[in-house]
Write a structure and sequence with these properties.
Nucleotidyltransferase, domain 5, about 290 residues, 6 strands, six-stranded mixed beta sheet, single chain, alpha/beta
Amino acid sequence: MSNREQSWALGSMIALDLETTDTNPHRDRIVTAAVVAITVRVPGARPEVTTRTWLADPGVDIPVEATAIHGISTDHARREGSPAPDVVAEVAGHLAGVWTADTPLCAFNAAFDLTMLDAELRRHHGRGLPLSGPVVDPLCIDRRLRPVSGWQDKRTLADVCAHYRVRLEGAHTSDGDAIAAARLAWAMAKRYPEAVGLLDPRVLHRHQADWYREQENAYAARQERKLGQLIAHGGDRAQVDWLRDRIAGIRARAESWPLLPDTGAGAAHRRVPPGPGASADSYAPC
């Protein structure tokens, strides 16, 4: 139910994107980061847009598959990047100054980026990421309000931008993807005023947690059917155990959006085959 006269999307917001060494937010590392602040000082006036970006030396090799996506090689990161602990602290500190209860944070597949930043903070500084305000995830919202099943459910950032006719400039750069996420949030708020745009952002945050739980549990149920078929056909014991662990991980993370638990084999990955409950973004399977 709507409880606002004006959409939160007409006010200030921030957007976050990370490019990384690989796809596991608990194991892999940040390579680049961007925080875009969209500030509305006068209602109806053109907002001020400021972007801050970082390049990190992650301290590990960057796989060539990841370099092919975001363009940052190991040598480039070592030569021009700042030490990872410094970058992680600066990104978190900057977020703490701009992300508030009244200023939502937009991120496409927010659970990946926020979990990654949380894990990096714990790795380098022994502390977690505080959630300073509500989160708006265009991927989670789109999966709820535009359900598609099977092979047709392709939801990379580029695909979702194309559907909503949102510009995506500089794809797979942190600043380009962050700005696109903010544009998507605005477009969805306009297209779905009752379900998105006119809700208090804190209420929308809670709705997304519920939607994510439903999406992940539906995905887990499909995996359980696959597990049953595997057992019925005398599947390999190692495959059966792996799939059981994976299902347990999916159900565990269903309860924890947007900061996901480390569940080992079932841990969330950023780029997985698209499907209800799975997060689609780029190149590697879960």
